[in-house]
């Protein structure tokens, strides 16, 4: 932390009421590149007063924004899609520098932002109401969706802009205004996204950016009476705290939380396809995805053949700086995350696990690198089979039947994503029905969301709401019923 604003690096100030704001005594924190340790930029630490100011401006701009016809609101989103595409390369490079994912992934993520803007612009035209047959003569009953007011969007670092775009664009098209708190690790990427929203000429106060301590900003937003909705993506632990804090003012809260996703491989599966899906799901984004596969549950008779294929593919992955051509696995986001991964691997060894690939820091590269790691002989109740690791560690578990596999799959507190590889129509259909998770993939890895398809988890992976599709309006709007006697 420092009070000094450096001029030779990027700087993220707060964005309140259409202006970039910095007080003379504003404190800043440093954003470091996890691949090199270099300073990427400095980001403002908002005070509680500044958070309150952002909420107040968002609240003030709400009436005019909700009264702006939807096609006009949609036009802003379509413009945002264009400008984001123009700044794609710049934004993607800053994302890679801030949190380490390889450039191709960052570019793909920026593409999701423009696709979300376009999708939500279209959905605005379909914010239909309902008519209900009246029980009395000469009466009409209609139900309409209405916006709620100020929406606080709180987002994690692993998808710096895509997750924010799901929240911000669905909030805006529905007629709400926004205060956005991005993760501190990626505040500079957030700044560029907000520059785009500034460039398209959104009215002042409609979107505000607040960076700084999750605890201070989060608590102020959660307790503020004028914040009507909290849309949060992040860890289950923080989600639970936010839910408790926001309960006092009866806010609506949408929680997208952690996962402990599994790939089930039955003995009749195409093992080459399964191995490919497993490796992509486990090690893309260095395993730092809520939908990353961190468990493989395989029928005993094909375990050795499957593990051999998974190990071969894993060992062919190129670890390196995400900005370098050819890198496939970047660094972990920070040293804490790196040490957490080291500790999980140590614990797995103590509990009887056996490393079949990886298991070490990659010290020669200098950044927060850890080898993609595969551990077999893991039992369903072992620590690495139960807790979210959020790193490149894959646990292999053997079972004797589909039924046992599904029991192990469902035997954690989480329920985000389940995948099954099988040629059997019977087991594929049973898995679709019996997996207790918000996403089920048949003959595909665990991590592959498409626009327009409801995204979210069951059990402790969320609180029942969904994003990425029009179902987001169940959070971003509320129903009003109108009785008219004529
Ligand atoms: P996190 O620590 O929970 O942080 C998420 C956001 O909450 C950040 O903006 C953070 O700000 C803020 N925050 C931290 N403490 C807070 C508090 N006491 N009150 C209010 N806000 C607070 O999660 P993360 O490490 O950024 O992201 C990883 C987690 O996100 C994993 O568990 C992953 O599974 C989950 N995730 C879920 C999904 C999904 O859709 N289900 C998608 C992606 C990620 P600071 O950065 O300033 O601390």
From TrEMBL:
InterPro entries: Ald_DH/histidinol_DH, Ald_DH_C, Ald_DH_CS_CYS, Ald_DH_CS_GLU, Ald_DH_N, Aldehyde_DH_dom. Keywords: Oxidoreductase. The keyword Ubl conjugation does not apply. Residues 20-482 form the Aldehyde dehydrogenase domain. The active site is at residue 256. Belongs to the aldehyde dehydrogenase family. PANTHER family: ALDEHYDE DEHYDROGENASE-RELATED. This is Aldehyde dehydrogenase family protein. It comes from Bacillus songklensis.
């Amino acid at each position: 932390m420092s009070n000094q604003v450096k001029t030779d690096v990027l700087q993220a100030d707060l964005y309140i009421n259409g202006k970039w704001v910095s007080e003379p005594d504003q404190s800043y924190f440093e954003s470091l590149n996890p691949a090199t340790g270099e300073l990427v930029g400095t980001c403002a630490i908002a005070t509680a007063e500044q958070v309150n100011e952002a909420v107040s401006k968002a609240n003030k701009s709400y009436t005019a924004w909700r009264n702006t016809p939807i096609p006009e609101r949609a036009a802003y989103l379509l413009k945002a899609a264009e400008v984001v595409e123009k700044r794609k390369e710049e934004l993607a490079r800053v994302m890679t520098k801030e949190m380490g994912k390889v450039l191709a992934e960052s570019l793909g993520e920026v593409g999701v932002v423009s696709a979300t803007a376009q999708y939500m612009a279209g959905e605005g035209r379909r914010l239909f109401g309902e008519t209900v047959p009246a029980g009395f003569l000469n009466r009409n009953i209609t139900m309409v969706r209405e916006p709620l007011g100020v929406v606080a969007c709180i987002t994690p670092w692993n998808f710096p802009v895509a997750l924010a775009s799901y929240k911000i664009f669905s909030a805006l098209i529905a007629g709400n205004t926004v205060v956005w708190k991005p993760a501190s690790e990626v505040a500079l990427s957030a700044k560029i996204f907000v520059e785009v929203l500034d460039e398209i000429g959104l009215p002042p106060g409609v979107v505000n950016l607040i960076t700084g301590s999750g605890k201070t900003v989060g608590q102020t937003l959660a307790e503020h009476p004028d914040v009507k909705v909290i849309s949060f993506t992040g860890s289950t632990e923080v989600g639970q705290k936010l839910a408790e804090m926001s309960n006092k003012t009866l806010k609506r809260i949408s929680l997208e939380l952690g996962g402990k996703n599994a790939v089930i491989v039955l003995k009749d599966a195409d093992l080459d396809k399964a191995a490919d899906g497993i490796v992509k799901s486990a090690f893309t984004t260095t395993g730092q995805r809520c939908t990353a596969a961190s468990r493989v549950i395989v029928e005993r008779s094909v375990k050795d053949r499957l593990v051999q294929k998974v190990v071969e593919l894993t060992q062919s992955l190129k670890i390196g700086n995400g900005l370098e051509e050819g890198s496939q696995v970047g660094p972990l986001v920070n040293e804490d995350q790196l040490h957490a991964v080291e500790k999980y691997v140590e614990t797995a060894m103590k509990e009887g696990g056996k490393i079949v690939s990886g298991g070490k820091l990659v010290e020669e590269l200098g950044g927060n690198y850890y080898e993609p790691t595969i551990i077999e002989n893991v039992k369903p109740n072992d620590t690495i089979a139960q807790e979210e690791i959020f790193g490149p560690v894959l646990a292999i578990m053997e079972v004797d039947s589909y039924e046992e596999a599904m029991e192990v799959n469902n035997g954690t507190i989480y329920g985000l994503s389940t995948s099954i590889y099988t040629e059997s129509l019977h087991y594929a259909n049973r898995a679709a029905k019996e997996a207790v998770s918000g996403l089920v993939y048949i003959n595909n890895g665990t991590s592959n969301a498409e626009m327009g398809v409801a995204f979210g988890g069951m059990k402790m992976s969320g609180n029942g709401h969904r994003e990425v599709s029009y179902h987001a309006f169940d959070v971003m709007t509320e129903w009003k019923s109108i009785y008219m006697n004529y």
